[in-house]
Each structure stands twice: as structure tokens, then as C-alpha cells.
Amino acid sequence: MSNFSILNESSLHNTLKKLYAYQTDGKTEVEKYGHIYDIITKDGEIIEIQNKNLKQIFPKIKDTLEKGLKIKVVHPVVITKKIELKDKDGNIIKRSRSSKKGSVYDVFREAAGIYQILFEKNFTLEVPEIDITEIRVQEESLVQSKNNRRRYKRDWNKINKKLNEINKIHTFKSPEDYLSLLPASLAEEFCAKDIAKGLKEEKLCPARIYNNSNLIIWFLKKIQLISETKTENKSHYYKKVIQA
């Protein structure tokens, strides 16, 4: 999928939309069934590209499923990010690389916002691991971001994100797909510390993920894929409800 460099002149969302439409022989921005969908494929499946905040489109997904339609939600995770800082005339001032790395494990936090429909027969969550370039423009003074979410003002603003490459695609449809992200070394009964140790030893994700293994426990409990078995030395132990 990384060969589609010609599409990288547009924003991240538009690039992914064009790419998925090309692969499925689909049409984009289709108004149908009371909604405007990113893509409707040749086979009639609906594809929605949602870069963040899956909860925001939950009503749209739910209504689509209730109509008996197939829907795939594509939620990319940024693994590596390059940064281009430009001046007001578009000249590049500086190129750098962000130290923050994403992971497919970030899906746990996002998927919690739509947990009610994760295992619906006609629903699929697809998570591409991507590399991007974030375009920033230099400001003359410290400014708030355009969405007013900055804790501290900066002397730049983001103006675009470009797709550089798609490295790997994870598909989540069944309980086994989510459980497969757990470390292979887990015993039948495990606690959050065991998950953290396994993720670290098997080098499955960045430190910020395994250091917050309680989030994984919380999510898997929420979608009823693990159940608590005992408390020992102040740690709660669990087991898989089904085997991946």
C-alpha cells in the first residue's frame, strides 16, 4: 500500500479515503441511507475513515448496522511522525522527527468509545499502522491551537498531515482478534503486572503502553473478554473468557 505516493499530496484523511476507494472500486462522499459516507464499495460495504475519537461516529455506525448494512471503520495509528516546520510562504525552516511513537495497542482506548458494537456481525474495525509527516507553520507569537486544546501556547500551528507509508494493517472483528494482542507468555491467570512484563519482554509496544497495562485490563473487562478470578497481594487476577 505504500506505493501510492502520488496520493500523498492531500491530507491524511483524504489520502486514506482515495486509497481505500481505489482498492475496493468504491465511490467517495456518497449520500445514502440518511448519511454521507466516506466510501461505499462496489460490493455495497460502507467504509468510514476516522483518524481519532471513534466515539464521535458511534451513532452513525449504530444506525448503519441497524439498517442491516456492512460497515468497516478505518482508524489509523501513527507509529512514526516526521515534522516539517514552514514559514508563511511555505518555505521549510526545519525538519525533525517526533520522539513519540504510536502502537496498535492505542486501539484499546479508542475502541472503548464504541464497545457496544465491536462484535456485531456486520462491523469491522481496521487499524493501519502508518508513518506520517505533520506540516506546521511558524507563527510570529505564541498562539493557541485552532481547536483550542493546547495546555500551553506554541509559536506554531499544525496545518496538515500527510501519509508517508502504511506498514501493517490489523483487523478486529472477533474476540480472538483483541485477545491476540496479549503477550503469548501469559499464564492462565494473570494480573496487570504480568501483562506489562510480557509486553516489555516480547517488545510488543512502547513503554508508555506497558506501563499503563491497567488500561488493557479495563478494556478487556468492559468488552467481557476476561473475568476476575482472585485477589492476591493486592493484585487482581484474571483469566480469558475464551481462548485466542
Helical stretch tally: 7
How would you spell out the order of helices and strands? Answer: HEEEHEEEHEEHHHHEE
Largest sheet entry: 8 strands, mixed
> Percentage of helical residues?
10-25%
Total strands: the figure is 10
Termini, distance in Å? Answer: 28 Å
Shape: globular
| SS class | alpha/beta
Radius of gyration: 20 Å
- Strand residue percentage: 35-45%
The low-confidence parts are 1-9
Average pLDDT taken over every residue: 92
What can you see in these coordinates?
The chain is α/β, with parallel strands linked by helices and 244 residues long. 23% of the residues lie in helices and 36% in strands. It contains seven helices and ten strands. It has helices at residues 12-24, 58-66, 107-111, 175-179, 192-201, 207-210, 213-222, and strands at 27-32, 35-40, 46-49, 71-74, 77-86, 92-97, 123-143, 154-172, 226-232, 235-240. Strands 1, 2, 3, 4, 5, 6, 7 and 8 form an eight-stranded mixed sheet that branches. A two-stranded antiparallel ribbon has the order 9-10. Strand 2 (35-40) and strand 3 (46-49) form a beta hairpin. The longest helix is centred in the N-terminal third of the chain and has 13 residues, at 12-24. The two termini are 28 Å apart.
